Amino acid sequence: MTEIPLGPAVETEPFHDDDLYHPRSWLTKYVFSQDAKVIAIQYSATALFLGFVALALSWLMRLQLGFPDLVTFIDADAYYQLITMHGMMMVVYVLTALFLGGFGNYLIPLMVGARDMVFPYANMLSFWLYLVAVVLLLSTFFLPGGPTGAGWTLYPPQAILSGTPGQEWGIILMLLSLIVFVIGFTMGGLNYVVTVLQGRTEGMTLMRMPLTVWGIFTASVMALLAFPALFVGAVMMLFDKLLGTSFFMPALIEMGEHLKYGGGSPVLFQHLFWFFGHPEVYIVALPAFGIVSDLISTHARRNIFGYRMMVWAIIAIGALSFVVWAHHMYVSGMNPYFGFFFATTTLIIAIPTAIKVYNWILTLWRGDIHLTTPMLFSLGFIITFVNGGLTGLFLGNVVVDVPLSDTMFVVAHFHMVMGVAPILVIFGAIYHWYPKVTGRMLHEGLGKLHFWITFLGAYAIFFPMHYLGLIGVPRRYHEMGDATFFPESAQSLNAAITVMALVVGAFQFVFLFNLIWSLRRGEPAGGNPWRATSLEWQTPETPPPHGNWGRTVPVVYRWAYDYNVPGAAEDFIPQNQPPAAAGGMA
Amino acid sequence: MLVAFAILLVVVGSVLFHLLSPWWWTPVASNWGTIDTTITITFWITGLVFTAVGLFVAYCVFRFRHRPGGERPIYEPENRKLEGWLTGLTAVGVAAMLAPGLLVWKHFITVPPEAADVEAVGQQWQWTFRLPGDDGRLGRTAIRLVGPDNPLGIDPADPAGSDDIVVDGGELHLPTGQPIRVLLRSTDVLHDFYVPEFRAKMDLIPGMVTYFWLTPTRSGTFDILCAELCGVGHAFMRGSVVVEDAVAYRSWLEDQKGRMVARLATPSE
Predict the structure, then answer these.
(1) N or C: chain B end with fewer CB closer than 10 Å?
(2) What CA–CA distance (Å, rounded) separates A112 from A119?
(3) CATH number given to A29-264
(4) Distances (CA, A) of B86 to A101, A352, A411, B57, B195
């Protein structure tokens, strides 16, 4: 058995590259840093913090739903504020920020063999604008009237009228925060896209990139096209609220008073919102698809099956996701003939999505499956994603959506498909890349405990919830009240879901503890603990220092999936391994 | 290893929950049993796929888990034939759900010419209804005309509106067997007219008239809920619809006409 060299030897001499930004002080190295890896950690830490805030909000709302007599301090106002802030935080400020700002910043330069992002200064501004957006969002908790309770979809006219909590300040700051977020994201997003297009190292062709990069890249392109719709929607609603324009406001009556609005269209806002909102689902999903492909391939020690199909499926999903938005609006009063078009496009998108699922499973088939924590989370992802994806076929098929729309079935569906499934990938990815970021492994026992409770618990929360929707329970009800169709046993189901949610939520603190504890006490990881092929594992030092690669950037000779190549000495061949040294077929 | 059994448990548990749990939709009370049929078709197809995928994953994990000295994985980047077959089969499954869905949708959006009009108006947070008088037509309305004496904004200049019957108190009656077009208006924010037993629902939008149609098929009293967030009173925006035979319906209608005449004779305070 011949030893294969793992990338270039460690160089101790610092390199100097005039094109690269160099920090001069502690402040510019760790706070106002322009290094993508530091920015990634700043983004991730902020997003994780917000994730725990959103988790606390979900506990409160679940307590109200499960045990309304117990939590008398949660009234209708508070409940609507809780669901609104939980939803907006999770979708935009946690998932988008974590996948693109966090994983995108850390992994893109390393995986494509670049020293950093191409516009480091804009990249730094991206994070600080994100932080401003987060502060604006959180500030509404402390202002008169509190945060907006308009629902995360912020539908006008209700969002800016009395009768909805937070109509004094909450809605204004929510819209401002979104505007700032989009500006900040644009700075980061341009970086992710241009770095992938222009910053790749020699030999790293597009069709050799790991699927993680493909997923994040496509999601960034989509976000750059989709977020402007949210941006203009937010600006127009702000004008309606503050300047008395009528973009979204028809002639109407507020609590008996005729208002001066007239001629606007509430449905126009819904089109703008969902033109952003549906691609947003895939902005979260595509990075998860990409990452989980790499986790499965690495930990099953097998090449990803059907790589080219996987790439084209990502691109097809990204493109199709811009022509399906009105499936969120089947009962919105839009022209009913739209239903034919949007149901057809929506169900077609199931085909490339299904291809991805098949290829993940066919990668497991005849693999050498190491049941590591990242692999466990990936398996959990497959099951929850298949479940959530299939219920999407109910809601996408226009007439099937009619009875289910605006019920708990929808809540269960989107939590399974864009809540639980991508979050399982985030956890898997953190267990996978934490050793590269910190140089230490996360504790495996705690990781497995975290997996079992999260996977089985979250499934037990959201699977039965579909059936509440089938009964006919509408979403966004803080209590069911008297209703003849609502059996008493359904309330006990609600209570069981709440108990499960409290347990699953509590065990997320095990994960938080693991993150902090392993920083100092974790087992030293070495440079490539998973024996993975992609470039980030071949850095001369771990964690990678500023500039990533020491004196010379790596040269790429192969795709990222050379696991168990026939004739090769080892069960993996790094991407930067020249053909002669690797043996086997190149 | 354990995870293979856990996945098996999740799949089998989900199927058993679906079959054995008491929580299922209410018996349908309109002609939209066809919607239930499309849901049933979708449950069969998606259920089979979920079970097949889940069981196959469990099998793969069990069979190909890492064991010292186990067999070496195969190196097979692509398999065009297999990928083609899977894509084709998926397309067939999707078409099998989409085709009946679109057919029923076509039916859903085609209002039969003999349908009678009923108007439901949403205001934070109550339902009011309006029925046409003997002319069978509802009069024009405008938001600017809404006031204490004219809560629905009926235009007095339109003769078609002079015999309209306004039903307040949140209880609507409908006769069985008669196709009904429900016209929907809102004077303030978005609402959604939703009766779980009817299956159909549609948003109410200020500035627009929206609609859907149904034929009530089963007598009974059903809850009307608001299904589009409309502010803090959303969950309490309730009404009820009483579906009854034609004779009972006629006597209710006559009673409503009498109340309307009485109300017009003594203008409200």
Answers:
(1) C
(2) 16
(3) 1.20.210.10
(4) 35, 11, 30, 16, 40
| A residues 451-510 lying closer than 8 A (beta carbon) to B | 452, 455-456, 459, 463-464, 467-468, 470-472, 474, 476-481, 483-485, 487, 489-490, 493
* Interchain contact, B231 vs A164, CB within 8 Å: yes
Instruction: For B116-265, give the CATH class.
Output: mainly beta
ipTM given for this complex: 0.96
Interface probe, candidates B94, B104, B145, B223, chain A, greatest A C-beta count within 10 A? B94
φ, ψ of residue A364 to 5 degrees: the values are: -70, -35
Share of chain A above pLDDT 90, in %: 90
Inter-chain touch A305–B56, beta carbons under 8 Å? no
DSSP letters spanning A506-568:
HHHHHHHHHHHHHHHHSPB--S-TT---SGGGG-SSSS--TTSSTTS-----S-TT-BS-TT-
pLDDT in tens, A359-386: 999 999 999 999 999 999 999 999 999 9
Residue A10 has pLDDT above 50, yes or no: no
Running DSSP on this structure, what letter comes out for residue A89?
I
Place of tokens 């990249």: A123
> Facing residues of B171 across strands?
B240
CB A73 within 8 A of CB A179: no
| Composition of chain B by helix, strand, coil, percent to 5 | 40, 25, 35
Contact assignment for A366 to B223 by CB distance below 8 Å: no
In this complex, do A474 and B194 lie within 8 Å of one another by their Cβ atoms? Answer: yes
pLDDT at B15: 97
- A vs B, Cβ pairs < 8 A, gives 321
Q: Which residue matches tokens 């924590």?
A: A373
Question: What was the pLDDT predicted at A25?
Answer: 83
Q: How high is the pLDDT of residue B183?
A: 97
- How far from the centroid of its chain's Cα atoms is residue A77's Cα? 28
Residues of B in contact with A252 (CB under 8 A): 143, 186-189, 206-207
**Closest residue by Cα to residue B188 from B129, B122, B234, B137:** B122
Nearest Cα neighbor of A261 from B153, B229, B209, B187 is: B187
B126-131 vs B165-167, strand pairing mode? antiparallel
Q: Hey, is the C-beta of A374 within 8 angstroms of any chain B C-beta?
A: no
A311-356, pLDDT tens digit by residue?
A: 999 999 999 999 999 999 999 999 999 999 999 999 999 999 999 9
What digits encode the pLDDT tens for the residues A270-280? Answer: 999 999 999 99
Give the whole-angstrom CA distance, residue A463 versus residue A457.
Answer: 10
**Distance between CA A577 and CA A270 in Å, rounded?**
51
Q: How many CA atoms lie within 13 A of B111 on its CB side?
A: 14
Q: Is-above-0.90 flag for pTM?
A: yes
Query: CB contact, 8 Å: A365 with chain B?
Result: yes
Rounded to the nearest 5 degrees, what angle is found at the Cα of B204, between the Cα atoms of B211 and B107?
25
